[in-house]
Amino acid sequence: MKLHYQVDGEGDVIVLIHGLFGSADNLGLLARSLKEQYKVISVDLRNHGRSPHSDRFTYRDMATDVLNVVDQLDIERFSVIGHSMGGKVAMAMTELATTRLNHLMVLDMAPVHYQVHRHQNVFAGLREVASHPVSKRSEAEQYLAMHVVEPGVRQFLLKSFAKQESGDYGWRFNVDGLIANYDTIMGWPEVAPYAGKTLFIKGQNSEYILPEHREAISRQFPNAKAHMVANTGHWLHAEKPDTVNRIILNFLQAA
Questions:
Q1: Could you tell me which residue ranges the AB hydrolase-1 domain spans (predicted)?
Q2: Which of the residues 23, 33, 42, 84 is marked catalytic?
Q3: Is 255's pLDDT higher than 70?
Q4: Are 33 and 61 in contact (CB under 8 A)?
Q5: Would the pTM of this model clear 0.85, i.e. be above it?
Q6: What is the 3-state secondary structure (H, E, C) of 1-55?
Q7: Fold of 5-114+188-253
Q8: 124-179: per-residue pLDDT in tens?
Q9: Is 234 an annotated catalytic residue?
Q10: Which residues, 6 or more positions from 225, have their beta carbon under 8 angstroms from its beta carbon?
Q11: How far apart are CA 161 and CA 143, in angstroms?
Q12: Choosing from 83, 103, 234, 237, which is the catalytic residue?
């Protein structure tokens, strides 16, 4: 599958991978910081953004898609940064490109199968919007608000609400495909131990990386380092971009 992507800057290559319901733009603050010193590739994962839709949505599939972008650009070695679901895609790439990765950086995600389903209200809101004729974002937000109470979450989701080729407005991501594959998204096929340079960055108030996940992290990423960003949640890179950018640059430039 040929993903939509954008390239900024020059230098050593860093691939940025967004999370569930996102697109390449979601890591834009990070991209703007990194492109001053690096070549940054921001991708839209399958079923998201401007990339094609598919019923297949495994982490190995998504990791293969991203690696295909790197290969299309004739890049041998690169680093990868993934947030949330994109962090799992980045971790899955360690089995496909073990010797090609310079650095692996995972933002607020653990290599585990999550048991708590956190997105049922979001899916209900997406379906609510899709069930009505909607011609502008303000109308879409009214229907979305029937299920999604947090204004910030609604604004994040509405970034992917746009005019389609048909002329009608709709979601860029594949709503039905994401719902059908939700157990896979929450799950995790454990990878072989990866001993390369690895950094996990956790939002202090987030529950995506917990003490009980340490064993799984150390088993699969035995040389991983960890950094906690104080007073942030799951969207740590948006809440404290300067801090997260500094942590990432320090890790990239460490001897």
A1: 13-241
A2: 84
A3: no
A4: no
A5: yes
A6: CCCCEEEECCCCEEEEECCCCCCHHHHHHHHHHHCCCCEEEEECCCCCCCCCCCC
A7: Rossmann fold (3.40.50)
A8: 999 999 999 888 889 999 999 999 999 989 999 999 999 887 778 899 999 999 99
A9: yes
A10: 198, 199, 200, 251
A11: 13
A12: 234
- Smallest CA-to-CA distance from 226 within 109, 85, 98, 79 is with 109
SS3 per-residue string spanning 128-189 = HHHCCCCCCHHHHHHHHCCCCCCHHHHHHHHCCEEECCCCCEEECCCHHHHHHCHHHHHCCC
Whether residue 218 lies in the annotated active site: no
The two three-digit tokens of residue 83, written as one number? 């947030």
Packing angle between helix 137-144 and helix 151-158, nearest 10 degrees?
130
196-240 pLDDT per residue, tens: 999 999 999 999 999 999 999 999 999 999 999 999 999 999 999
- Helices 85-96, 59-72: crossing angle, 10 deg rounding: 70
The domain locations on the chain are: 5-114+188-253, 120-180
For 14, the token pair is 């860093």
